[in-house]
Amino acid sequence: INKSPEASMQDAALPWPFRNFAALKIFFTSLIFSLIVFSYSMIKAVKDSVFLSMVGTAYQPWAKILVILTSIVIFMPIYSFIMGRMRRQTLATIFPVIYGIFFIVFGLFLIHPTIGLANKISSPARLLGWISYIFLEFYSIAVVATFWAMLSSISTPDSSKRQYGIITIASRVAGIIASITGIYLSKVAKISANTAFPLILVGSACSLFGAAMLIQLMFRILPTKYLTGYTDLHEKAKLSEKDLKKKPHFLEGLFTIIAEPYAIGIFGLIASVEIISTIMDYRMQCLIHA
To answer: How far apart are CA 155 and CA 163, in angstroms?
Structure first.
């Protein structure tokens, strides 16, 4: 686009990041994912600790099974349905807001003298522990995976190579900051768990609200060509109108795994790691609780 001399002078007066849209995109995506990882690192420990305190260690394997059944029957069909019908930008904004609201409400429940952590009696009848555990288990899919889906839809292979390393490093820094924050609340500030956990949830909610706002700001500031992915540039020209209107269904991923040998290998590798990690994590949680 040929700009007028006045417009060029106005662009030159802007700070450097706002004149370099590629760098600005990396800045936005890195900061957004850092806020998401910061929130995830904080609530990951809260999820297990709250469940073990409210319900008990003996019921955590049953909670895992319940998460799997809920995922197959309820969550994944709904998630696949809306992923095929809504823009990635919209979903990447909605899910953080939903979880941010849940964190605030969850924190208020934890403060309650009988429903919350002040009640030291563990019982499978305490529904708050079950609900929070199941809902927080889907965080990685609803928030983290949706962010990567959005980023993939607005990135070309070349831009992905430039931004992936920076985003990963930024997210690792965010995870370290989250760990230091947890250490400060538990060791240095000497705040009780009844107070620390609600504070952690509120901090996580603020991080998610900030991520949602930055996503909307990024799509308002960046030109369209920096928000166009490989599929939009190359693949749509090869697809017929019928193919473009075709919506993905819930079992499509399962069919792909069965049909492609490499997909079965990847699935087997990830499943084995997750099984071992889950068993080791459960044993560690039992020892910590004891």
So the answer is: 9
* pLDDT tens by residue, 218-276: 998 888 877 877 655 555 455 555 555 555 566 676 777 788 888 888 888 998 998 89
CA distance 154 to 219: 10
Instruction: Answer whether 211's CB lies under 8 Å from 34's CB.
Output: no
Q: Which two tokens stand for residue 108?
A: 């208020």
Query: b/e for 200-217, b at 16 or more Cβ within 10 A?
Result: bbbbbbbbbbbbbebbee
Alpha helices in the chain (DSSP H): 5-13, 16-19, 21-54, 60-70, 76-83, 88-111, 127-137, 139, 146-153, 157-183, 193-221, 230, 241-245, 252-259, 261-289
Exposure of 261 in the CB half-sphere (CA atoms within 13 A)? 0
User: Which distant-in-sequence residues (6+ apart) come within 8 Å of 137 by Cβ?
Assistant: 47, 67
Q: How far apart are CA 128 and CA 109, in angstroms?
A: 8
The answer to pTM > 0.90 is: no
Output DSSP code: residue 290: -
